[in-house]
Write a structure and sequence with these properties.
The protein is of the alpha/beta class and 325 residues long. It is built from 14 helices and ten strands. Strand 9, helix 9 and strand 10 form a beta-alpha-beta unit.
């Protein structure tokens, strides 16, 4: 696999698992790493969640080293609280490689607290915060950003972040106002390679190998981040890696493989979250493993009505395997 470095850490694949709230828990990272992710991210971790020693927050950063290299992603609305959160994080003795700061989340409940993409509104304030974090953190600092808040100002943002000491920037090719709608604008990133010396990655609607190669060709980025396009389709990561190595790949999704991928993930999730919480998460995710098959609607209905435990999911998967659904 082609590789690159973030600071002095080798990233052995140019395909990165993007952070996703409610998705990239330890179990999901563990599953996806087997398909060749060069780097994975935790879900967003609240600065206040760490400061107040919230157990659910701490649960989000568990790892057994199988998901390394790992970036722990923090979000918060002030320099002071983010710095306090770093103190708490370092007391927990978590195995991780990078500290990532979320400057990208467009969700109103995050931005109303001046977190996420709200930082993009004030370059000077963002620089002061990120410089302080880079000096404070014992780990290399990375950042996840968008093209801008309402208007595109990504050229200024990446230079601000590099000056602050950031070692890698992941860029979602939409503005905050776009949310997850409209087409990602990779053309707006064509000049980034000429503006900064640190590596950067790009994301936005990467559902196929062609999507990934197109984004990399336009932007000349070091890495591609796979997010929603990989949910239920873990082979996407493997296929992008094969394509980057100029090797043959096949994007045909095989139902027997999908059954086993979901079975493995569900049992990892049960171990992580317990039966009830794992089942609740899987009711939304499990149907995505079968979304392109002719019987996908029947499978989705069966899961919606009957998935109350991982044992029940196993029974449903056996029915799919035996062609009873």
């Amino acid at each position: 696999m082609s590789s690159f470095y973030i600071d002095n850490i080798e990233i052995k694949s140019r395909v990165i698992l993007a952070p996703m709230a409610g998705i990239t828990s330890f179990s999901y990272r563990k599953l996806m790493n087997k398909f060749g992710c060069g780097l994975t991210y935790s879900e967003m971790i609240s600065d206040f969640g760490l400061i107040y020693d919230n157990q659910k927050t701490k649960d989000l950063i568990q790892s057994d080293r199988s998901d390394r290299p790992l970036a722990i992603q923090l979000f918060g609305g002030s320099k002071e609280t983010l710095l306090k959160a770093i103190d708490q994080l370092e007391k927990l003795n978590v195995d991780y490689d990078f500290l990532d700061i979320n400057l990208a989340c467009p969700v109103p409940k995050v931005t109303k607290n001046h977190s996420g993409s709200s930082w993009l509104l004030d370059q000077e304030k963002m620089f002061e915060m990120m410089e302080a974090i880079c000096k404070k953190s014992k780990k290399p600092v990375t950042a996840k950003v968008r093209l801008g808040y309402s208007k595109i100002n990504i050229d200024e943002t990446v230079q601000t972040l590099e000056k602050a000491g950031v070692k890698f920037i992941a860029i979602h090719a939409r503005t905050k106002d776009q949310g997850y709608t409209g087409k990602p604008n990779f053309e707006a990133l064509k000049n980034i390679r000429n503006l900064i010396k640190i590596p950067f990655g790009v994301s936005g609607d990467i559902y196929t190998v062609k999507d990934a190669l197109n984004a990399l060709e336009i932007t000349k980025a070091d890495a591609i981040l796979v997010a929603r396009g990989g949910i239920g389709n873990p082979n996407l990561v493997r296929n992008i890696n094969l394509a980057l190595e100029k090797k043959e790949y096949n994007e045909t999704v095989i139902i027997d493989e999908q059954i086993e991928y979901l079975r493995e993930y569900s049992h990892l999730l049960k171990e992580e979250l317990g039966n009830n919480r794992a089942s609740a998460v899987l009711r939304g995710i499990a149907p995505k493993f079968f979304q392109n098959f002719v019987n996908s609607k029947l499978i989705r209905q069966k899961i919606a009505l009957n998935l109350n435990s991982i044992d029940q999911l196993d029974e449903i998967l056996n029915e799919i395997r035996d062609k009873k659904i």
